[in-house]
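Below is the record:
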Amino acid sequence: MEINLEQSQKATPADSRGVWISTETESCEYCGAERQYSEIVLGEFRMKSPHPSPCTCPEGAQAAKLEEAKQRAKAEAEREEEIQQAKQSRIDKLIKRSGMGARSLNQSFETFKTLTANTKSLASGAELYVENFSNMLPKRGMPLPGCNGIIIIGDKGTGKTHITSAIANELLKKEIGVICMTERGLLGRIRQTYSERDMSEKEVLDAYIKVPLLIIDDLGKEKASEWTLATLYSIIDGRYEEAMPIIVTTNYDEDGIVARLTPTGGDTTTAECIVDRLKEVCRIAKTKGTSWREGGGVR
């Protein structure tokens, strides 16, 4: 039965709360008893219930319970969908801030090929790092986490970027902020602040220092200058002082990193300090094998 709310004017007061019993009724489809509609009247506002009161007959009562369960399940499903949409929206924002490109965003532990004992060890260690990441972060009133970062050293094409991208993607799924960029990309974002006014240099540096995990890929690939050296020191020393975890990949050993970060003919002291900071808070992992780009398939 369809109720025309505009034409329905008669109602009998039921209590003092503004809830009225309408004179309009509808027969129970099971026993034929009349079921009444109720309406709420608040001043000039008048709203009639979409359904009549449930019938007290066994069949009607059971039907009412089933309908109530159906509506509750529907509401819970809609609420769960809203929660998932809100979560995905938060993850999308984190991804946008991560600095990762399409290729990196598609790399995972599942796509990482563990063809050797070395790559299997690297993969299992990376997965364990993700599982225990909450313990890698400093907590007020608790001892500092200590060695909470990783330096991955290896030749080109041996899976360094892939495994760090997989770590980043797993943490992003958990709504944990990550910035994962090459050294050149990190420094390039700072350079952009000199010509663009969307963010200041300080804001970008603060983001690098405070994000839960910073991943610097290909450390030592950027052409060294006094500015690049000083900027990298500010980032790494800032995270060191805040006890924030950092992951670095590089093709170079300790001496090689110092040489690559130091401008030609320059003083090596700052670069040595960067390496010392990293060694103090990072475990060292080495990748071995033939480059996947040359047919080794280690990636």
Remarks:
- Residues 1-17, 292-299 have pLDDT under 50 and may be disordered.
- The CA atoms of residues 187 and 228 lie 7 Å apart.
- The chain has nine helices and nine strands.
